[in-house]
Amino acid sequence: MTTLYGLKNCDSCRKALKAYAAAGKTVRFHDLRADGLTAARLEAWLQALGWERLINRRSTTWRNLDAAEKAELDDARALALGLAHPSLLKRPIVESADGVSVGFDPEKI
Questions:
Q1: Calpha distance 26→54 (Å, rounded)
Q2: Which CATH number belongs to the domain containing residue 94 in this structure?
Q3: Does 29 reside within a domain?
Q4: 59 belongs to a structural domain
Q5: Looking at the domain assignment, is residue 108 inside a domain?
Q6: How far is CA 28 from CA 11, 21, 74, 96, in A?
Q7: Which of 29, 91, 100, 106 has the most neighbouring CB atoms within 10 Å?
């Protein structure tokens, strides 16, 4: 089964859910804030995608972090930041039989 990870108020996540429904595909939605995020899952995403693709450095959350938190980012620091601030993650994150991807691409649906 395909699982879409995101935030319920995220426009990209809503568009992705509508696109899956329109295509007749079943998808489970997992809200990163309400349903939580485990360190193991985030670590697997970091290994598969790398922190550069997973952390949204254009987000309001990123801009609100202090310089020390943003300095010298690596996988370990990205893991800690992602767990503390799930809204830092690019959305949606889609897990399926094909693997894990980030972002909404209607062509892939």
A1: 24
A2: 3.40.30.10
A3: yes
A4: yes
A5: no
A6: 17, 11, 30, 10
A7: 91
Q: What percent of the chain has pLDDT over 70?
A: 100
Question: Is 23 in contact with 107 (CB distance < 8 Å)?
Answer: no
- Give the residue numbers spanning the domain of 86: 2-103
Mean pLDDT of 3-23: 95
Establish if 109 belongs to a structural domain.
Answer: no
Bridge partners (DSSP) listed for residue 93: 5, 102
As a whole number, the mean pLDDT across the chain is 93
The two beta strands, 2-6 and 93-96, are antiparallel
The answer for residues whose C-beta is within 8 angstroms of residue 89's C-beta and 6 or more apart is 5, 32, 54, 55, 56, 82, 102
pLDDT reading at 108 higher than 90: no
13 is catalytic: no
CB distance 106 to 19 below 8 Å: yes
pLDDT at 105: 83
Tell me what the mean pLDDT of segment 89-109 comes to: 90
Looking at the structure of the chain, the number of domains it has is 1
Catalytic residue among 2, 3, 10, 12: 10
